[in-house]
């Protein structure tokens, strides 16, 4: 009887250990995929043809890209019946009609600059909240009126800015291969379009593999869990991000969207969109370029700007729509040192 009990006990312990090991394997397997993505697993398991990355549960530090996002609204003629020299691409919340109207009345309304065609496009995701249907109806009406909106079916939110950026690159790669440059610029920015076009027309400005803005060369990966840009070492082991232009406004030659998209499946996208672009650029072997004058891109300008500084600026943050209007009026009247 004692032998039978001992034998049953041994069998129970073996089964328990086996179940525990299987459980640990699946937990580790899911966690490694969650933290590092399929690239990590592919480095440990030899496969003849790596599957398409499927990051359904991105977790707190990544975003759900790539996915089967599609454009649900896109009646803009930009790059379809026109070939602009420069595209002003403005990511904006669906609800921010005030911001879009302010841009249409100021720097987004310029079409011919120094003999070059310039066109403005706003990119939005899907609205959320209890009044999402009404807001979507308003966006649709606005799109029919102005024909400068493109919308994809991702949820529009701050945490999804990287998705917004990658979808923007998809649209540019699909439609704008024959255009020359794009500036991605936030809706709270002032843009001196003439100064930007002048920079891009400069013979010293590269026509390929070109990205510029306010470049952060040694941006630390923040390890403080209470910082909103916190990134644990399990996600990024390096102490610094690769160099990248700050997301408020950056310019790129239009060969880059397709190139960035070609390497992005190899790098699981983090939610910090400009840092992620820097990671993609590094994989491409492309470095961003400092602007010829640091005054061209300003993130925290000392208001009010002097006429001399305003004559040099390309893009700078503003504190309100009214302030942007005032600066735009000063530029229209003429500013110089």
From TrEMBL:
Which Pfam families does this one have? Galactosyl_T (PF01762)
GO cellular component term of the entry, any: Golgi membrane
Membrane topology, as annotated, equals: Single-pass type II membrane protein
Query: Keywords in UniProt for this one?
Result: Glycoprotein, Glycosyltransferase, Golgi apparatus, Lipid metabolism, Membrane, Signal-anchor, Transferase, Transmembrane, Transmembrane helix
Cite the InterPro entries for this sequence: Glyco_trans_31
Question: Which pathway does it operate in?
Answer: Protein modification; protein glycosylation
Tell me the compartments it is located in: Golgi apparatus membrane
| A single GO BP | protein O-linked glycosylation
Q: Could you tell me the EC number(s) of this protein? A: 2.4.1.-
What GO terms are given for molecular function? Answer: N-acetyl-beta-D-glucosaminide beta-(1,3)-galactosyltransferase activity
Segments traversing the membrane: 12-28
Q: Which family does it belong to?
A: Belongs to the glycosyltransferase 31 family.
Name of the protein in its database record:
Hexosyltransferase
Its source organism is Poecilia formosa
């Amino acid at each position: 009887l004692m032998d039978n009990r001992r034998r049953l006990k041994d069998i129970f312990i073996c089964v328990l250990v086996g179940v525990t090991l299987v459980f640990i394997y699946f937990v580790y397997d899911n966690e490694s995929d969650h933290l590092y993505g399929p690239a990590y697993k592919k480095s440990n398991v030899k496969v003849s043809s790596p599957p398409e990355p499927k990051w359904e549960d991105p977790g707190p530090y990544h975003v759900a890209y790539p996915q089967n996002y599609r454009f649900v609204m896109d009646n803009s003629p930009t790059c379809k019946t026109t070939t602009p020299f420069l595209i002003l691409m403005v990511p904006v919340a669906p609800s921010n009609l005030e911001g879009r109207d302010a841009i249409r009345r100021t720097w987004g309304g310029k079409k011919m600059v120094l003999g070059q065609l310039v066109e403005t496009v706003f990119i939005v995701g899907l609205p959320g909240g209890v009044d999402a249907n009404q807001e979507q109806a308003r966006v649709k009406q606005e799109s029919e009126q102005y024909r400068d909106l493109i919308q994809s079916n991702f949820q529009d939110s701050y945490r999804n800015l990287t998705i917004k950026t990658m979808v923007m690159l998809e649209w540019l790669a699909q439609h704008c291969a024959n255009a020359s440059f794009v500036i991605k610029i936030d809706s709270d920015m002032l843009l001196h379009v003439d100064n930007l076009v002048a920079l891009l027309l400069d013979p010293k400005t590269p026509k390929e593999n070109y990205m510029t803005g306010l470049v952060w060369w040694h941006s630390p990966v923040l390890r403080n869990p209470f910082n909103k840009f916190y990134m644990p070492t399990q996600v990024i082991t390096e102490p610094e991000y690769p160099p990248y232009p700050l997301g408020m406004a950056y310019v790129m030659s239009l060969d880059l969207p397709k190139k960035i998209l070609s390497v992005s499946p190899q790098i699981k996208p983090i939610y910090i969109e400009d840092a992620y672009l820097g990671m993609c650029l590094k994989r491409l072997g492309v470095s961003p370029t400092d602007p010829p004058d640091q005054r061209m891109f300003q993130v925290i300008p000392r208001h009010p700007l002097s006429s001399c500084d305003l004559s040099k600026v390309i893009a700078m943050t503003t504190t309100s729509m009214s302030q942007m209007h005032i600066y735009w009026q000063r530029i229209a009247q003429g500013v110089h040192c």
